[in-house]
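Quick one: examine the sequence and fold tokens given here and explain what the tokens say about the fold. Here goes:
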Amino acid sequence: MRPLALVILTCLGGGIAQGTLLADQPAVEIRNDAKLAAIVDACVKGYGKDFGGVTRNTNGEIVLSFRGREFVFDDARKKTFDELLDTPDIKDTFCQTYPLKNPTDKLPLNFDPGRFRNEGLFKALYGSSESEVSQNCVIVNFCGHKVKFNARCGAADALKAVGQDLDAAFERRPDLKEYVAELGGTFEWRFIAGTKHLSNHSFGTAIDLNVKKAAYWRWDAPSKLASFSRKDWPVEIIETFERHGFIWGGKWWHYDTMHFEYRPELIAYSRAFLLKSQTSPLANESASGGLPTSKTSSSQ
């Protein structure tokens, strides 16, 4: 058996990523790669002990480790929008920075931060089958409803905290309670419509609020996407979810305003971006024209 060496890497923001590395594998120097350092730091902050660090595999590729499984950081492939949806590497999942500014109005073409999901990563974090995910789920009291949510990576605790904060907000703004009067659902093992990719609802890490109050891009004419404004959606609800590590599907070009999913690594990355640049990530997207147009796209 080959000896193991402990690798400790200092990341941006003072975070520390730790992992194990075979003695004959080279260490990874991340300080000279700002993008890699920022992503590692976000994974440390988002997933804590479930993130195992960054090393190189036997092919010399940089890999990030989550719960004992390794994922290639950058496969060096230039991808279309559809390919980013279908086969993202870890770097691809951070290729658009989720905007924390509220309220949000119109968005650039194909600006969908969080929709480029590495399915294998979520299987490693939350469960690789319907039965395994179900076993990892607990019942959470959320705004008068009992829902199933994954207990791993702090997801269920985060949703519970969201519910408690929203209950307090509803005392001040009773009119907002209609957004949670009915729920569209949480844990449901299913594919994203029109694809063979699992929805994040499959992992018990997403919640849909009241469908009757929602807007969804597939329900509208394609011509509406460019002019769709998110300004009327209550900032109090959006910011409460974001505060606890959730992203909002309303901040996608392919909008889904009922949808919130637990993505603490993306929120951590966005907070660091905001502190460093003091500018909105939308400015860069608008300047570059967003991502390539796709022939088809899919729901969440």
Remarks:
- The CA atoms of residues 195 and 298 lie 7 Å apart.
- Residues 1-24, 286-290 have pLDDT under 50 and may be disordered.
- Residues 155-172 form the longest helix (18 residues).
- The beta strands are 4-10, 16-22, 51-56, 62-66, 69-72, 137-142, 145-150, 206-208, 246-248, 259-262.
